[in-house]
C-alpha cells in the first residue's frame, strides 16, 4: 500500500487528509474552492491508483502511513492563511497525545471538533439510506436524538468530563479528556447560553464498519443565532456514543 500511496499527487493526498478530518465531497470542494465534480474525479483517481473500493479506505491508509508524524499530516496551504484567526473559531485537537498545535480547518465558522476516521463522510459510494418508519426504527431514532441532546446539554453546562464519557472508543483513541476539555473551554463558553435547540434532521450513513447516525440541530445561542450543530454517533455495547461534533 505504501507504494501506491507514493503514486498519489500532493493534491490527492490533501483531499484524503480532509476526508480523515470528517469532510465530505461537498465540504472538501468548499475548502479547496473547487467543484464537487472535480473532487469526485480526484477521489476516483485515488481509488484507482490505490486499488481500493472506497475513498474512506484510501484515507485510512494514508492516515496510517503519515500518522506517526502529526506535522506531516497538516495541510499547510489551508492552515497558513488563517493562523491569525481567533482560536475559538478554528481549534481542532490534532491527536490524543495532548495539545501540540491547533489544526486549522478553513471555512468552519465556530467550532469543528472532528475525529480522524470517526466522523462521517458522505462520498458517492456511500449514499444516505432512506428513512425507516417502522416502530423499531422510530424507537432507535428517539434513542439517537436523546443521546445527542444529552451530550450537547452537558457541553452547555461545561461538564466536559461527563460529556467525554459519552463519546465513542474511536474518539478516545484520538482525543484525551485533557485535549477535549482544553478545546471545549476555549470554544463553547463564548457562544453563550442556549436559547433554543430544534431538531433539523437525522440521517443514517451506511459507511463501514457499522454505519453512523448523523443528527443535526438548529440552535440559537445568546451570542450566535441559527447555528447548526451536527452530532455523529456510532453504536456500541453501552448504546449510542458520540464520534464527532461540529458547530457551524
What is the CA–CA distance across the termini? 36 Å
Average pLDDT, all residues: 74
Cα Rg? 18 Å
The description of the largest β-sheet is: 5 strands, antiparallel
Total helices: the number is 11
- What is the number of independent domains? 2
Characterize the structure shown.
This protein is of the alpha+beta class and 248 residues long. It has two domains: 2-74, Orthogonal Bundle (Arc Repressor Mutant, subunit A); 87-248, Nuclear Transport Factor 2, Chain: A. 42% of the residues lie in helices and 19% in strands. Strands 1-5-4-3-2 form a five-stranded antiparallel beta sheet. Helix 2 (10-20) crosses helix 4 and helix 2 crosses helix 5 (55-66). 36% of the residues are buried.
Put the structure in a nutshell.
The chain has 248 residues and is of the alpha+beta class.
Keywords:
248 residues; alpha+beta; Arc Repressor Mutant, subunit A; Nuclear Transport Factor 2, Chain: A; 2 domains; five-stranded antiparallel sheet; 42% helix; 19% strand
Draw up the topology in text.
Layout: H1 2-6, H2 10-20, H3 25-32, H4 36-50, H5 55-66, H6 76-79, H7 87-90, E1 111-113, H8 135-156, H9 160-164, H10 169-174, H11 177-187, E2 194-205, E3 212-221, E4 224-236, E5 239-247
Amino acid at each position: 500500500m505504501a507504494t501506491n500511496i507514493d503514486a498519489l499527487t500532493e493534491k490527492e493526498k490533501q483531499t484524503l487528509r480532509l476526508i480523515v478530518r470528517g469532510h465530505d465531497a461537498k465540504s472538501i470542494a468548499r475548502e479547496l474552492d473547487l467543484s464537487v465534480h472535480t473532487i469526485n474525479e480526484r477521489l476516483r483517481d485515488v481509488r484507482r491508483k490505490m486499488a481500493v473500493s472506497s475513498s474512506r479506505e484510501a484515507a485510512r491508509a494514508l492516515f496510517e502511513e503519515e500518522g506517526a508524524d502529526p506535522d506531516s499530516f497538516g495541510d499547510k496551504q489551508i492552515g497558513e492563511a488563517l493562523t491569525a484567526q481567533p482560536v475559538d473559531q478554528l481549534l481542532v485537537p490534532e491527536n490524543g497525545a495532548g495539545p501540540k498545535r491547533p489544526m486549522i480547518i478553513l471555512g468552519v465558522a465556530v467550532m469543528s471538533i472532528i475525529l480522524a476516521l470517526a466522523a462521517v463522510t458522505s462520498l458517492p459510494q456511500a449514499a444516505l439510506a432512506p428513512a425507516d418508519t417502522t416502530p423499531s426504527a422510530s424507537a432507535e431514532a428517539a434513542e439517537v436524538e436523546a443521546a445527542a441532546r444529552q451530550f450537547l446539554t452537558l457541553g452547555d453546562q461545561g461538564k466536559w468530563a461527563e460529556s467525554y464519557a459519552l463519546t465513542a472508543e474511536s474518539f478516545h483513541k484520538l482525543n484525551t479528556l485533557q485535549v477535549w476539555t482544553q478545546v471545549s473551554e476555549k470554544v463553547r463558553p463564548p457562544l453563550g447560553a442556549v436559547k433554543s435547540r430544534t431538531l433539523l434532521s437525522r440521517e443514517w450513513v451506511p459507511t463501514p464498519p457499522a454505519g453512523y447516525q448523523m443528527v443535526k440541530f438548529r440552535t440559537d445561542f445568546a451570542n450566535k443565532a441559527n447555528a447548526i450543530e451536527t452530532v455523529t454517533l456510532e453504536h456500541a455495547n453501552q448504546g449510542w456514543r458520540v464520534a464527532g461534533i461540529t458547530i457551524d
